[in-house]
Amino acid sequence: MPKQPEQTTTSSQPSWVSARSDGFGLVGSKDLKTGKCIFPRIPETSPSASRYAAIDLSRRGEVYSFTVIHPNPKTGEKPFTLAYVDFPEGARAFGRLNLPTAGAAKIGMAVDVCVESTAEAGTHYHFIPAKDQM
Amino acid sequence: MSKDVFIAGAGMTPFGRHDGATMQDLAQAAVLTALADASIDASRVQAMYNANVYGGMVLGQVLMRDLGITGPALYNVENACASGATAVHLACQALRLGMYDTVLVWGVEQLTQLGGGTIPLQRNDYKTGLYASQGMTLPTVYAMRGTRYLHERGEGPELLARIAVKNRAHGVRNPFAQQRKAVSIEEVLQSRPVAEPLTLLQCCPSMVDGAAAVVLTTLRPQASRPAVRIMGSAVQSGHIEEGCDDILDAEITARTARIAYEQAGVAPRDVDVVELHDAFTIAELLYYEALGLAERGGSAEMLRRGDTALGGRVPVNPSGGLLAKGHPLGATGVAQMVEVVWQLQNRADGRQVEGARIGLTQCTGGGIAGVDHAASSVHILGV
Asked: How many domains does the structure of chain B reveal?
């Protein structure tokens, strides 16, 4: 299951996160002229904000494409997966895809959004394979 | 177009690590070579255009100060990887309007000063900042295009490796290229993975310095060699990435190319030689289709047939391209034109495309700003 965020106040969250009954989720913007969506949400303080409406993105999306990054061996960091994820609302988000050991990404696989927020590290999101695919 | 614009002179430094050299050294060397190639004195230069990404404020003035080319208008131009081509485009506009009759354009970059690795992302955008914190880099963007391309087209990574094999074989023939070693498909695939499906030999080298310069004029050059004319010059900016767009369509590049072809009055089939923006192998395959060299879905077969290799129907990146020659950002667009000038004037020793009369250059840069690339530029040159 997606890890739920620690308790924080919504006022401390970035504009691309919203608190919902089942935890925090991602927020995009819908272009009022074209009807198309983008992520992250256009900041509310932007002079461009009136061109868009905020839209909550589903907790589940689908991998459109991905890559496995192999950091320079000098860094000692392990490979990790990054992905474009398409949401039913018509928005695409980019982020890290955390896979179980020996797991591999696939185009079209369902993934869930996880939002984590701590006072020390701030707010971050990532994707994990959808529960019924793990 | 009210006036013809000619490239009267062209010159560049070798691309590579220039330890001990400054950006002044590189830019001045390229400028002096281009002026000598044009057989004109610096006193005839009426305006200057300096293209660069990471050099800082009023760089152009600093670069030309000690050379004594001072006084005329000097425009500092930044448009990511398309900076050099954008500078040429702006110069063409001024020349066609009759503001000047002879101008100097150069591009320069010293990426070795950044310490290597992937180049830094811009820090002027909340979206780029968020995505950078998630791990976004330029190789990431291209790698995801590669993954999607192989998935949709039913291809394997060997196809991408063929681009590196071709362009690196071309680079062996070019003394201005940074990496002049031929490689096999196996060597490409077995080189260190960077961002799957891209391996190290499928990425342009990041530790590279260099400069390139051209003299543009509306006065028809009197040299005995063929006069190279800029037939088409287009720059476009990217639309916002909305919805779930197709990341393989390279819309900005296709749009820019259409404008350039229309200006030049030629079709893709008329082009004899191409220098395009192969920062990563997948890019070249996408640009075959965006530039109209191949039909949609036809890039893989075009490559496999050898159409784009030296000796093929329309050689692409005879210089070695960004993959072998190197990609000092601000210099790249100008260097592409230097190569095409040499090709059209039968001066590309060792890598000459026989009988080339029309050449195309393409730069598309800034792929991480929430738009379908920030800037694209296409130029069509002819004799």
From this structure: 1
